[in-house]
Protein: Amidohydrolase
Organism: Alloyangia mangrovi
Amino acid sequence: MQMDKVLAAFEARQAEMVALRRDIHMHPETSYEEVRTSALVRQKLDEWGIENHAGLAGTGVVAVIRGRLPGNRAVGLRADMDALNMDETNTFGHRSTIPGKFHGCGHDGHTTMLLNAARYLSENPDFGGTVHCIFQPAEEGGAGGLRMIEEGLFEQFPCDAVYSLHNKPGVPVGKFITRVGGQLACADQWEVTFHGTGGHAGAPEKSVDLMTALAHFILGIQGIVARNVVAQESAVLTIGMIEAGTSHNVMPTKIVVTGTARCHNPEVRDLLEKRLSEVAASSAAMCLARAEVVYERGYPPLVNAQAETDKAVAAAAAVSGMENVDPNSPPINAADDFAYMAIARPGCNVMMGNGDGPEWKNNHRPDYDFNDAAIPYGSAYWVSVVNQELGQGADAQQSAA
């Protein structure tokens, strides 16, 4: 497959796809509320004559495209559709029209690129097997990917492998990065509550000083990553909020500390949970207080399989050249519920450039926007993945083996 011709085809449709992407951006919908977005996806698929099914995880959509060549394999291509619960500060014409909701992570672009690729694959089914385009709701904390799996995603739409694509600001458009193994982190949250007697701030000897316990805890957890986690592993423990006190001269009876834990290794994850509880208990005991710990595991680490990562790298190189592909990029402490799909089936997530200029802000910032110049590259990447899995690229790999 000549990817320069594929890119040219997408560039010819760029204006149409930009309009679609900006329409989605203007009408953001958050987890499990993607009613309009889901309907728009189905409308476009119907318009292009592509078989599609709705209902998984409420607003999920799966498009089915069958190749015209012999083949029994099936591949899943996943894009997330949901927005964030935050206000947008951009002032351009396609800014969010819904207060408190905003496509601040680029899922509008992800949805557009997969739709674009689905249309091309339907018009050019030069592959053997089946492509399932998975439009997933509720990635932003709602675990929509897990819910789709639990509701029968891979039973109704069998996949031998699954792939995901996410934009990354700070990386030039047309460049792709990924890695074998742990790429994205788990996203756990924890809460530590310190309990004491309270009392007059002028008579601390008559009370249990929870502020001192809090101070020991804050300093103590800094040593967990520094002194308990192997230096070659990546891990983060961060405090995000502290609730304490009612007055300058009253010692509180309760302090609540909440935070997040991020890592890429399941064993490190177990260690972080264990040591966090131990440090909280010992910090409280030093001050005659009591600590209550709640540790909630969120998305698991996203682990890329070797074979699928090799295919993803080859697919990206076919689009942009190997000089624009980094197959050994460092792990990232963001999380993504594609991790559940990559556990259920072998898979790979790739990050694609969203622009490295100062105008392209990081994800989850109120002034973020998806870079429309990336649409042809991401769309072509999806077609190239299908070629690696089910088309001429797959034939070449089999011949080499």
